[in-house]
Amino acid sequence: MPTQNTRLETFLEQCRQQIDAELEHRFSTSDTGPARLQEAMRYSVLGGGKRIRPALCMAAAAAVGQPKNKAIVPACALELIHAYSLIHDDLPAMDDDELRRGRATTHIAFDEATAILAGDALQTMAFGWLAEAPGVDDQVRLAMIRELALASGHQGMVGGQAIDLESVGRSLTIDQLEKMHRHKTGALIAASVRVGALTAPDVSQDQLTALTTYSQTLGLAFQVQDDLLDIEGDTTVIGKPQGSDLARAKPTYPSLLGSAGARNYLAQLLDSSLSSLDGFGREGDMLRDMAGYVVARTH
């Protein structure tokens, strides 16, 4: 029997290959826009990445008894939204980063205007792909679109980024910091899990509630680990400048709790996330493995 790590590594690699192949296929068959814009979009989406959100989507589908292949197109749509958010977050008007995934950010590799347009195009493309997702009926497609719209708009990721920008140089309470990250990071992670679960026509409200708790807690854990990596990670490993949050005086969990306190909180979040899956049998194992991966990752 494979070990937990081997099982997860195999799953993540399979997901990455499937997602990358689907993304490559769809970009190669829809190359109808301006060439430079298309190039920037491809650069941003196909230039690496851990594909954590797509993997969570596919793992959630498996947890409710669906073949993970059924979630490939929704998972790709989630990756488009994630890529768009990274392009815009890196812009000079936002976080002003020059390095992402170990290479130049999109506005550096191209130009600022092209980067903005590429992000805009990826966002709308995501909803177009969801609207045509195969293997699910129209009501499920609508539910998926609603999940992604709520998670990526002013009530989710965009709202969290606005709070983030307003918070630079300010002292926040732990509750205020959590509110920001439940929106900025956690909302799309929660949507990834919920969209995957919606591939099952008979998914129950109890299952959705448990998976929502799992994913929201995991979203916070993801951010705590990100904050720790910002002060402890190696730029060549994490793929972006080490200490960038500290340099911009952004509020983080280590700045509020200290490094040791942030690690303790991370352990609490992991326990809470795992306990929310108690109602799932072995079909939920990949989600359990993913939670361990998120809090132990080095990049």
TrEMBL record:
UniProt GO BP: phospholipid biosynthetic process; terpenoid biosynthetic process
Domain of life: Bacteria
A GO molecular function held by the record: metal ion binding
GO annotations of cellular component type: cytoplasm
Keyword Transferase: yes
SUPFAM superfamilies, per database record: Terpenoid synthases
Annotated keywords: Isoprene biosynthesis, Magnesium, Metal-binding, Transferase
Cofactor: Mg(2+)
InterPro entries linked to this entry: Isoprenoid_synthase_dom_sf, Polyprenyl_synt, Polyprenyl_synt_CS, Prenyl_diphosphate_synthase
Protein family according to the UniProt entry: Belongs to the FPP/GGPP synthase family.
Protein name: Geranyl transferase
